[in-house]
Each structure stands twice: as C-alpha cells, then as structure tokens.
Design brief:
The protein is mainly alpha-helical. The chain has a domain of 95 residues. 60% of the residues lie in helices and 2% in strands. The protein has a two-stranded antiparallel ribbon with strand order 1-2.
Length: 177
Amino acid sequence: MRAGEIVHGSDRTLGYDGGLEHPGPLARLNAWIGSAEMAIASAAMTLLLATNGYAIAARYLFNRHPAWIIEVTEALLVTVVFAGGSWLYCQRRQIAITMLVERLAPAGMARRGLELLGELVVLVFALVTLWQAAEYATGQTIHLDGGLSTGNRRDRPTSLESRAGAAQKGGSDDDRT
C-alpha cells in the first residue's frame, strides 16, 4: 500500500506517518510539516487568485495596471509549486513514470534499487537547486571547496544580453572566424 491511499474499513488516510498505528515523534513532525506546507500552498493559491483578479479588474475596468503584479504572481506561483510539490512528493502522489518499476517484482532488490536511484536523483537535483538559489540570493559564487567569490552575479550580463550588446556594436559572438 502506498502513502496517501485510504485504508479500507477505516476513514483515516495514510500520510507522513506511513500508516503506523502509533507514529513516533519524527512521523508526527513530518505530518505537521505536511499540514503546514499545504496551508502555505493553499494560502498562496488564494492570494494568487485574489491578486490576479484584482489586476484584471484594475486593468479592464479602471485602465490601471498594478506595477507589482508580475513579481507578486511569480513569488506566489513559486510558493504554490514548491510547497505543494514537496507535500505531493512525501505523499507519493507526484507525477512519475513507473513503467519500468511496475514490471519488476514488488519486493525484489532490482525494484528497490531502482526506487533508491530515483530518490538519489531527486536529492541531487534538490541540492543543486538549493545551491544555485543560495548563489542567486547572496550574489556570490559558492565553490565546492568552501570559498566564495565576491561580486554580484545578477550584475553580469546573461548570454542573451551579451549577444544583444555585440549585435549593437556591429558583430556577434557567432561571427568569429
């Protein structure tokens, strides 16, 4: 039985506690965190709908577009995706391609190994994303040896901006021969 499925003969839903009758402190903490994540995602979705409704009404009824709406929408959408996605992942309700895993024996080592590999890939992706977010937020490059490079990464031009600047000067990066 997977987490998030309803136990037949009971009205209780399996969740972060993994279906344990007497969950320990870690399972209770996970359940609390899951509830907090869903509350945050729900509040962010409600604010997202309200602010965009306001922006639509302001634009079409009063011909005034709020200047802040894009940034607020982006922040709320990121909150909904990451808080809701985290909860879905813990509930094992995330989108997954299970064609290969389902062909393996349910209690077999190959299936467990493949599931472990999938969990490790998710962990590596999450750590790289966290690392990049920290670099962006601090404006410093974080090196694996523990050092920092000063200078704000956001002040450096992106590849599109550097190509646009080169095109205005009469050349481009691709014109080198």
